[in-house]
Amino acid sequence: MSKKLLIVDDESHIRMLIEQTLEDLEDNGVELLFAENGEQALQIITTEEPDLVFLDVMMPKMSGMEVCYKVKKEMNLNKVYIILLTAKGQEVDRQKGLEMGADRYMTKPFDPDEMLDIASTILNA
Amino acid sequence: MTLHTELFFKLKVLKSVFKRNLGLLALIKDMRNTFNSELSVISVDNQLLYGTATNLPFTFELSDNHTTYATLCFDKPEAKLIGEVIQLVLQKELEKKNIANEVLGLYREINMIYNFSEKISEKIDNVSIAQTALEEAQQIIDITHGSVFILDANNDKVLQMARLGHNPNPEKSIANQNPILKQLILKGTSLVVPKAAIEANSALNHLKAVMYAPLKVKHRTLGLIVLGNEREKEFTAAELKLLTTIALQSASAIESAQLYQKGLKESREREESIMKVHKASQKFVPHQFIKSLGKDKLTEVALGDQVEREVTVLFVDIRGFTTLSENMSPTENFYFINAFNKRMGPIIRNNEGFIMQYLGDGFMAIFPNGAQHALNASIAMQKDLKTYNNQRKVKNRKPVKIGVGMQNGRLIMGITGDIERMDAAIISDTVNTAARIEGLSKYFGSNILLTDLCMKNLSDASKFNFRFLGPVKVQGKLNPIDLYECIDGDEPNLLKHKLNTLKLFKKGMDLYFNKEFAMAAVTFQKIFKKHTDDLPAKLFLNKSAHLITQEIGNDWQGIALVDTK
Question: What are the structural domains of chain B?
Answer without folding.
Answer: 3-107 (no CATH), 123-261 (3.30.450.40), 288-490 (3.30.70.1230)
